[in-house]
Amino acid sequence: MNALSPWAISASAELAGDIPAVFEHTAGQFHFKVTATSDSIWIQTELPGGGHVAFRAAYSPGSDLEITKINNNKQQEVDLDLSSAIGSQKVRITVDETQQSPVLRYTNSLTPVKDMLISGWPKDILFNGKNNNPEQTAGKIHAGQFGIRTGFMYLTQTRPKSATLLYLQNLTALSDYCEQTETSLGDTVAGEWPELGFSLPASKKPLKADKAVILNDAFIAFDQEIPNDEPAVMRLYLDLLARIYLLLPLPATKYQQWPDILKKGLKDLISSPGCWSQVNGHHYFNAYVCDYKTPPEIMVQLAVLLPLLDYVEWSGEDMEVMKVIKNGLSSFYNKEIGSIVRWLPAAEHELEGEEEQKLPMVMDSWYLHHPLLNLSRLALKGDKTARQLFLDSLEFTIKVAHHFKYKWPVFYKMDTLEVIKAETAPGKGGEKDVAGIYAHVMLQAWELTKEKRYLNEAEKAAKTLSGFGFDVFYQANNTAFSSGALLRLYKITNNKLYLDLSYMCLAAIFRNAQLWDCNYGYGKYFQTFFSVFPLNDAPYTAVYEEQEVFCAFHDYLKHAEDIDLLPSARLLMAEYIRCLIARAAYYYPTMLPKEMLEEQPKVGELDPNLWIALEDLHDGWEKSGAVGQEVYGAGNAFGILPRHYIRVAAKDLLVYLDYPTKLISGRKDKSLSFKILGDGRLNCEMRIGKTTGDKLPHVLVRAKGVKNPIEGKLTDNGQLKYILSGDQQISISWD
Predict the structure, then answer these.
(1) Could you report the per-residue pLDDT of 490-540, keeping only the tens digit for each?
(2) Which fold has domain 6-226?
(3) Is the pTM value of this prediction over 0.90?
(4) Do the Cβ atoms of 606 and 597 come closer than 8 Å?
(5) What whole-number distance in Å separates Cα of residue 340 and Cα of residue 362?
(6) Which fold has domain 258-605+612-641?
């Protein structure tokens, strides 16, 4: 039992008294009673099995908080007006029962009577025993907020065994508080049992008098289940997160002109000298703009090449730059090692060791597997050079996996397998999700060669992921690739273990997401809602990892079409994709005001006029682009366009959807039919436009099972805009 704060001690003493309820509501096994103490409004909640938890819906220092008005005209909702020395407050408390598990929401706003500094504020969750003794309770916190990720806590009360809760603070609503007080919402949802939840960050500048500001907007999803193993913990997390997501006030998304963005980005990628280096007559992409100190890396070349290939297959264009990249790939093969290597052998002597991995022959564990994954994709498309490089590197890759017993360190020497850095942090282990991306590589090898030993390797590696839980996440894109590989293993073997592990990877990704918009400071200039962070301790989101998570989710949803996929997983992946398409344009410095860009990046140079994406977007009070301008993140637009724009060449039409789709049929001159993936409870946007300046033909849009055609609205730029739903089959015909 952890020591209690003065707030918790005084609250438990007051709550032990017989306090009359101002509002009560029962939802299944959960009973909610709203009461007022001298300084707070509480929602005292009875849980199954004798559990009790109280949520502080409003607070005022001192002992003069009074309810001046109660409005409970709705059975599941109550509004309270409050008065105290610091000002007037409003509270709205709602219990949603539209799904199987109830969700409690309370929103609190304050209008200060004077300019006011906040020096400290209590947390809003207190688990208390039957007689309001917190000492009589115990529980397990499965996961919670880190940095500026989603403000959440996922926990189970274990003494008494009562229920599992997902608490989520809608941090978007608190942006005005942060803007006024110059504070950040990072690490604001925290605590130790039994005193948990959100507390306001101490202000640097005062709240303005007579101006209403939201201080709390909390959602709590409840479930009677006490998950007793890892698969149950992960599934319930996904389900409760989706449950709350359906109730969140989702920010509006803005349509981005991705065809135009792609053209600008392609021009700068090819023509900007800062994107290229030359070694022994071959041209190679730099990792960052004007980063001439670091030798070329094979991961960088392939991370640009594969999205370019996606675009070429979609557009039918021929790109000379792809030949330039391919011509240099064989130079990364080391015959003595028997594998591709990270650094270009002809230039690795230039490494200066300013970082522990920047030394000859040092391999970052995931760096070996990521290029192999991309080589295998090229090989499966018939590329002979890629096939040879891939197959020639497999024996070394398997040798490393066996040496480390499928538990890879962070850095090791390729020639000796000496460990350079074993753990990401003391006691945290190495790169846990590498076993998943290794399994993906082995599945690709099995698909390419039909040799069963590769499938056996994939299974051996996959099984080592059990027990990692949320900590399986090392790097977002690799965890996403792992989830897809595990799904494929499940479909091949029908072993449910792999499906459970796939959900574990998905849960770990969404635990590292940012389900709020940072609308304070520089955050006002770009969207952050539903971002994913590249590493589990990264302070910023990154374009390359997000782009690959986006592509991996597309692939996952298509592989999952013929299985009974967890609806919450389908919903969250489709929504991440929808939000990224609107957000990703803000990684380009050309879309941002120059004053928010870092002038001296860590690597290379930053050109604010170049359509090459920044690696990093930060909290609203920090400048972005501190790491550099990421050439290997150039696949951003090339990944989006082929997946979200359907070309109808015969009619010069582009059909855009912000949800993932699966093409069913297309008659070049008359019609188009496709299935919208995702969840039918949420909407998506479709646009139909011309690639030329001609007038749109008459278009007829129908949804399967719906009698009347769907009407579109003409936009200012001449497109027809439609609002559709997930999980619909749509047909489009035209004159």
Answers:
(1) 999 999 999 999 999 999 999 999 999 999 999 999 999 999 999 999 999
(2) Beta-galactosidase; Chain A, domain 5 (2.70.98)
(3) yes
(4) yes
(5) 13
(6) Glycosyltransferase (1.50.10)
